[in-house]
Each structure stands twice: as structure tokens, then as C-alpha cells.
Specification:
Two copies of one chain form a homodimer. Chain A is of the alpha/beta class. In chain A, 39% of the residues lie in helices and 25% in strands. The first copy, chain A, has three domains: 169 residues, MoaB/Mog-like domain (Molybdenum Cofactor Biosythetic Enzyme, Chain A); 79 residues, 2-Layer Sandwich (Alpha-Beta Plaits); 167 residues, CinA-like (Maf protein), CATH 3.90.950.20. In chain A, helix 2 packs parallel to helix 7. The interface between A and B is large, with 68 and 68 residues.
Chain lengths: 427, 427
Amino acid sequence: MKAEILTIGNEILIGDIVNTNASWLGDQLTQLGFTVKKMVTVGDSLPEMLLALEASKQNDLVIITGGLGPTHDDITKKALQEFFKVGLKRDEQVLRFVKSFFESRGIPFSESNVLQADVLENAQVLFNNWGTAPGMLVDEFGTLWAIFPGVPKEMKHLFSERLRPVLQAKFSVPKVIKSSYLSVAGIGESTLSDGYLKSVEALLSDNVTLAYLPHYDGITLRITASGDNEKEVLAQVELVRNRIKELAGEFIFSEEKATLGEVVGQLLKQNQWNIGLAESCTGGGVAFELTHTPGSSAYVKGAIVAYANEIKEHVLGVKKETLDQFGAVSSETALEMAIGAKNVLNTEVGISITGIAGPGGGTEEKPVGLIWFGISTPNESFTFKVMLTKDREANRKRSIMIVLDALRRSLSGLQGLPYGAQRIVYS
Amino acid sequence: MKAEILTIGNEILIGDIVNTNASWLGDQLTQLGFTVKKMVTVGDSLPEMLLALEASKQNDLVIITGGLGPTHDDITKKALQEFFKVGLKRDEQVLRFVKSFFESRGIPFSESNVLQADVLENAQVLFNNWGTAPGMLVDEFGTLWAIFPGVPKEMKHLFSERLRPVLQAKFSVPKVIKSSYLSVAGIGESTLSDGYLKSVEALLSDNVTLAYLPHYDGITLRITASGDNEKEVLAQVELVRNRIKELAGEFIFSEEKATLGEVVGQLLKQNQWNIGLAESCTGGGVAFELTHTPGSSAYVKGAIVAYANEIKEHVLGVKKETLDQFGAVSSETALEMAIGAKNVLNTEVGISITGIAGPGGGTEEKPVGLIWFGISTPNESFTFKVMLTKDREANRKRSIMIVLDALRRSLSGLQGLPYGAQRIVYS
């Protein structure tokens, strides 16, 4: 099953917009078992579009996005009329929807908007709940042509709700496709795949796949299985899922696609504990991340960003002797900062980060990239360190993820730490 | 001058990677005066590549990226050998570089790495300072073919340092192209273009362009002029720049591409003032943004993230009566928070943010999206409010930008506030 993705729009060619639609469609079609042979972008030009359409005929499926708006430079419908040698017909359901769409927003309805309801004579209308340009589906020249507006939200809606069922009926696309996610942190992609999940490969096939999707706070594992029997497909997903959980359980922070901040928030809520933070090199980034979650005021009381040593001492209560003897970037200071956060912010849980983010400020003994973390809960108090990179912003972002993952492990009763770091336990 | 961008790689077709290379090249080529007619992506497949190469012959310039690695699925060179009907030659300079590249990293040098030094017989080598795959330039069939590795850093280096001079010599590309930037905040794109910069349009032409590049903390204006005489080109850029500065000066926070955090940092340093922050709904985001800048410890002492009212009262010293009478989201609380930040963190400048980020917590009187800001410097103390959206994360990010822009204006002696907000002045 060969497919092509054809994008229409000058704004892509001049580099104003990155073509994320094509990537999203490539991923979706691949999951459905199509082989995407080509992605093509051409401008709002009739001859270029006609050439591209002609060249794409050899595919089983062609998805066309963009150029369906009501302005004069949106010429996708014009090109398709010429290509299919058909006229337009007015779709009354679309017309009613377009009118109500403008009415409900209090925007004057102009004649050019009526044209949005004109669809290709040979097309089946794919009704668009999210915008005024309907999708269209044409079966011609032995190829299925799906035509979508370029607005990502509308395109995704039309693909998922309108086109996918058609593909499942028409092509030998598996009737059932199930994806399931596990979110992992505190381990590198290659260590995870080669050191922990090697034996999972034996469970994988064309119909059962495992994708590593890395992002800033870890890796999302996507397990996808497909087939014609729902029960069998779900069992295959479960089998891989369970094997991964056996092999790499401690790294899994979410059995869905939750963020570390959300997971830590859930654990704090379950314990009915509040958290206070003491941040130096992350400069408020951990607090910002935790308060990203709506309702986080239920467990985040606040944070002290103690960028200057003076603040560590006078606001957080880190002892002057500790700073003098061990320095600001040390296990001892990290511990006193975490405990200081608890005291000053009146919370059960305190965490701290103090490190040398770079690019300057490193010494031989304490180089750029050395970060100390402190964690203090009603159950335990400990510190640990990691050595990161020379890159200031990467160090700050990874430190946020590391401290949240360490807290997640502590609140879950796990002993291990991210990236194999070692606890220094204080009683 | 017609150009095409041809990307090679299955990872693009299956949606694992978004093709940002194509956008970057589209922007660069457009600036040089080329018309990008088409962007095409095909997989690591010989017949598909040959078809795509054949179809691209009609252009003056074709840029090919990807598939130049040393592994068996990197077949760009193989396809080009067949397409141009030529063999390979070993380039000794590249070979020496590849060897030293591996040596300096202590990586064993394998036979497959030697192949990186094999280039097309009919190609001029474009030496790659940043990786082991050299770029190549071929003049054939009346078309110029530039072949680059797909690693963005290497591709950009080869385009800018190696290809651009060739294009300027070979095509009627203007000899001189100068771009200049102005960074703008606190105003929407359409208000800026239609309400302030309308008369700038008369100064623009094919050779003098103005691009609006919006991003999370404002809009970067890019003025580009081109021609054959450097002095004239620079004068054209200056003319547009000066007109924009006359018309919209108060919104310009940087005459380069500096961030608001960097600009505020510079202003604080010039005054030899330290800053302390009191953040509620932004949860540490302003402190995180300010400390993004290396060396920011010279003027950022710290922040109190007072998410709970208890912290506003007990750590920042906001009076209980103020909170009871006016509420946490009010001018009065914003003022006491800003002054509290100065007192607790012992700084000359204090700023505060307290608002209802959403999605919950709104009332009729204080709806979601209402944000109060406080600013207190040795010169003045004032508060202001803005009404943002229902979107929590957008509200948080825009609040960070707004308070930094307001502080930038205050430190620069300007009276106006972002988005036309009104000062409430306290003496």
C-alpha cells in the first residue's frame, strides 16, 4: 500500500512554516501499514500542482493538505477540478455549518465564505467540525485522494475521524490498531534499549512494534499492535508492556503519557504532603515545571530561588560555616537547602538543587556540570550528585527532570536514583 | 532562478523527524532571490531517488540533503553515481580529516569510515569542518547540484560557508545581502503592522523586505536589503530601521536579537542594581527566564515563589489585612509582594506577578486570565493588570514576557506599558 503526502503552500516553500503536518501524517500512515513513498510540497501555482498530482497517481493513497481557504491564492480546488476534469457542487450541510460558524462568532458572513461550501463534483464530503473548509475524498484513476485543509487541528480531526474508518474499510489495513504508552526517565535511550530491553525484540514483528520517542523529560515508549481480532491485539500489547515493566520497571514513571511533574503531584497528593523547593542553578525551573499542572496549588506551597549565597544563608537558613567549609555546590549545602525549604515554606517535603550550570564558574575540583541535589521527606533525607555537560541550558533542563525523578522514586519507595547516582543518606 | 530542495531519508517519511532542514533552506534561498518551486522527500531507495533526481533537472539549483553516512542504508552517493554516470574518487584532504576526527575523539577508525572520503568524480568537494561527510557540488545538465549531509549543523555550515559564495559568483544573486534585526514586545503583530508600521511599506520592494518573525517573547523584525553596492544596501537597511524606530520605538527592546531577559539584565547591570522576584501564578518562570543568561548571578539574587497565600504573608510579608480585604490577585497585593521581594531578598529592584492562570479559580469579579503585576525600583513603584486568555500555559508564558517588558520600560525611563496597560502609581 503506497502513499504520498502532497502539501500545498508558498509559506512552506519560503520557510515561514515548518511542515509538521507531513510528519504527523507520515507517522499515522506508517502505523496503519502504508509505505509513505514521497512527501512533496509545491506552491499555490496551478501548473506546479498539476505536475505534482500527475506524478502522484501511481500511489494507492494521496493525502493533499492546504490551499483550501477562501482567498484568491488558495487554488487547490481549482487545480483538482482541472486534474479530475470535474466541476463544483454546493454542499448544503456545509453551507449551513459555515453560516452558523460565522454567526456564533459574530463575524460578518461574506460572499467569499459561501465558496467554502463548494466541493468537487466527484468528491465525498468529509465534514469538518473545527473549521469552514470541508475535507473531500475522491476515488479516481485507481487512487484514493484525500483533500484536507492545512490547519493542523482540522487536518488531524479529518484524518482520525473521517478518513481512518474509510482506509480500514477499503484497504487491507488491520481492523484493530492499539497503541499503548510507558514513560521512562533517568536512563539514556541506548542503555535502555541495549542494556535492559534487548530481549523485548523477540516479541516484536511487523504487527507488533516498539517506538522510542525521546523528549526533554525522558523517553516515551509506544507499543503498537495491529490485527483483525481486538482481543488478540490487546493481548499482544499487554505482553510487550508487561515484559518492559519486568525489565525496566524502576525507570517507568508513568503508565500513560503523564509528565514527571504530574506524577510527582499525584504522589504528593496521595500522601497529603506539601512540597517546598530550594533552587539555585535551576533558577525556579523546578517550581515552574511543578506548577504547570492545573490544581498544583493543592501541594506546591512555594519555592525559594536562592541564586546568591546570601539568600541561601539568610532566607533558607543554610549555615555560614557550611557554605564556608564545603561551598555552595556540595552535599552538605544541598541537604541544608532542602531542609531549609521545608522549614521556611512549612512543608513535609523539601527538595534542593545547587550546581555549576556553566559556562563559567567551574574549578578543577568542581567543574561545570557538577550538580548536587537534596531530598527530604518525612521518611528519609538524602543527597546525590550527577555530572552533566558543559551546556548551561541542557544542564538546567536535565537537572529539573533528575530531581523530579529522584523524588518520584523516593515517594514510591524505590532506592535507585536516576542515571545510577548514589545516595548519601542523612538521618 | 528556480530551486528545489530534495531530502533523502526514511526517518522523515515515517514521521520520526520533522524536516526543519527544508524550511531553513527555503528561507535562505528565498532571501538570496531564488524561487523554491518544490520540496521533495524520498526514502533511502535507489529507484525513488533516481525518479526524483530526474524530475528536478529543470531547476537552476537543486540542494540534496541526507543519506551521506557510512552505513549501508545511506545510498545518496550510489544514486548520484548512477544519475550522473560517474564513479568515485578518494579525496586525500577529507581522508586525513576523517582520520584525525576519529583519533581526537579516541574512537576506533573502521574501514567503513574511509568511504566517507570517497566523493563523486565530477564533484567539487565542499569541505565540512563539523563532520566526516563532505559536501559536494556538481555542475551537470545545466543545473547546479549541491549535496549536503542531513545533520542540521553541518548542512547549515556547508550552505553558509561553502555554497553561498559559489551562488553569489555563479547566479545573478546580489553580491551584497544584509539583514538587520529589531526585537519588539508588548504589542500584537497586526496592531504593529497596521497601526504603527503601515507607512514603512512604501520603503519596501523586491530588494528591501521586512519580515515579522513572531516567537514566545515578542516579534523579531528582520529587515533585508540586497544589491551590488555595499554602501547602498546598508543605507537602505538603515532607512527602514530608522523609520521603524521612529514609529514604534517604545516597543523595541533590542536592536539585535537579544532576549528580554538579556536586555533587562544589561539594564540592571548598568544601574548596578540587584533584582528580587515574587512570583505566584508564574511559579518561578520569571526567575528561570532571567537566570537563563550566563552571568546573571551578577544581578539576580533570587526569588520567592509564593504559590500559597501563607507564603505571601509569612515569607514575603504581605499584610494579612491586604490579602483579606483585596484578595491575592489585586493591585495592593502585587505592590506588597514586589516590595516584599526587595526587603526579603535585599535588592534595589523587586517585581511581582499574581494572577489567575486557570483553568480553574476564576470568579465573575476576577476571571481566569486576570493577572496583576508589581514593579518597584529606586525610582518608582507601580502596579498594572492585564486580561489574558483561558489557556493556563499561554497565560503563564505571556505573563513572564509582560513583566520583563514592563521592567525594561521602567528601567529605560519609558512611561508606557505592554499592550496599553495603565499604571497605578504608588509613591
